[in-house]
């Protein structure tokens, strides 16, 4: 815990959960159990990792061309990464933190093959945690994540990390609550009611691996944060969320393997819970005996859809 942080009295006791660029705390608001047991409970469940782990047999390409800018790409009108994003960079810099101007089908960031500097605004998702956050016990949704700081719209929150796997290799949601499908391609095609975003109609051969001009109905890859993950695995669903999911490409252009980032959709005030729309298709989860499984939603939004799936 940073020395500049003091716990709110009603959140005592605390436990340090993991080291990130900024502190993440775990708080138990009702102090109902001895801290050792809570720490043991949370730590036994998963291994903390700040970065994505890749399953054996999956190869992440790293061969795309980079820009040849010097310094920050925001100062270079001819940046080739800006061209990939449709002529403008997707981020603007505010108080030295990049902010995403609008949700996009996909964001092309500068990466290992670009010659700009490490703090280029077009590397915003690579700059690590920018806000003080807390993992806390919610009243009805298990653990959740809330902020200690005011977060501005478009600010990066975190990457959803875990183990990158082929979807066919993982047990479904019924057995594992922490699976995140990488559905960037399906979003671009507007499948299953997904809302199309700016740039969805982009026709770039390099965006798609091999010949998948027709998006497959189900995502080929997913991130499994069941046994390995960061605090991101504790962010709950809301039907009226204050975060949104954004696919980001840095060192390659295969959207099926895009990095999954969460960004702030609104101004988020201290102690507000962070949440995004899990986007499950209703009636899509079926038990072994063919019954539709329903999970009630406790997000509390006035327009709550009442079910996650
Ligand atoms: C990725 S986990 C989120 C962290 C989880 N709350 C925990 O304690 O580990 C997803 C699970 O959290 C719960 N959850 C998330 N959002 C919810 C909501 N709006 N209403 C009810 N349960 C929710 C459900 O059990 C869901 O399967
Ligand atoms: Zn750059
Ligand atoms: Zn550039
Ligand atoms: Zn809801």
From TrEMBL:
- For the Post-SET domain, which residue ranges apply? 293-309
Report TM segments.
none
Q: Which UniProt keywords apply?
A: Chromosome, Methyltransferase, S-adenosyl-L-methionine, Transferase
Sorted alphabetically, the Gene Ontology cellular component annotations on this record are: chromosome; nucleus
Give the Pre-SET domain ranges. 65-128
GO terms, biological process: methylation
**The keyword S-adenosyl-L-methionine belongs to this UniProt entry's keyword annotation:** yes
The segments labelled Disordered in the record are 195-216
Entry's localization field: Chromosome
Is Methyltransferase tagged as a keyword?
A: yes
GO MF terms on file? double-stranded DNA binding; histone methyltransferase activity; zinc ion binding
Q: Which InterPro entries match?
A: H3K9_HMTase_SUVAR3-9 (IPR051357), Post-SET_dom (IPR003616), Pre-SET_dom (IPR007728), SET_dom (IPR001214), SET_dom_sf (IPR046341)
Annotated ranges, domain SET = 131-279
User: Where does the secretion signal sit in this chain?
Assistant: none
Tell me where on the tree of life, at the top rank, the source sits: Eukaryota
Q: Which PROSITE patterns does the entry link to?
A: POST_SET, PRE_SET, SET
Q: What is this protein called?
A: Histone-lysine N-methyltransferase
Source organism per UniProt: Triticum turgidum subsp. durum
